[in-house]
From TrEMBL:
Domain Fumarylacetoacetase-like C-terminal residues, every copy: 12-211
GO molecular function list: acetylpyruvate hydrolase activity; metal ion binding
Pfam family, one: FAA_hydrolase
Protein's name in the database: Fumarylacetoacetate (FAA) hydrolase family
InterPro entries reported for this sequence: Fumarylacetoacetase-like_C, Fumarylacetoacetase_C_sf
Species for this entry: Phytophthora infestans
Domain of life of the native organism: Eukaryota
Keyword Metal-binding among UniProt keywords: yes
Keyword vocabulary terms for this entry: Hydrolase, Metal-binding
Amino acid sequence: MRAKQFVEFGKKIIAVGKNYEAHAREMGAASAPKDPVLFLKPTPSYVRNGGSVLLPPGVGVVVIGKGGKDIAESTSMDHIAGYALAIDMTARNLQAKAKKAGLPWAHAKGLDTFTPISDFIPKSAVPSPHDLNLWLKVGDELRQNGYTGDMVHNIPFLISYVSRIMTLEEGDLLITGTPEGVGPAAYDSAFGEFVVLTAGITGLTDVRFRVETRVYQA
């Protein structure tokens, strides 16, 4: 199954913003949007478990196994090959600057290493994808601890919705949203030379990444 190698050959990462009510509120919205808010991330932003997230100086995932267009919500789960845990990193300073100027902010989400990712989890290992505990720590501090059952838009709806906008292909990644608790993971003297991010899906997988400052080559 080629979908197991989604990091190597997948063509796109589709992410859903503000898909948890509490997260939407912490980002300043009165409530979660009625329709899913989508954005894309480039595949070179992947970094595997144990790798480093490189910050410029100054975040439950679905893996598509069978492509399709205009997929019916009733059959959308048949298009899933498996799952993974991803951390959707954002350069908030770049995003805020772009938003203030009324410009797109793809660069704030699409930097190399800005999609830390776990190994592939077979669909058969996740009988209840809407009953999973997601957690994330920055250093020893627990920042996020939520459940996929709190998603505003569930997985079948999201797959159907996205497929009516763009064709889904084998190996594509659908990031279904993040629970509340987002915050900075930049260098801080309290952490030493770098910050360590750990995250997991309880009972299924956990990952560890170093967050470092990127050194640009001349």
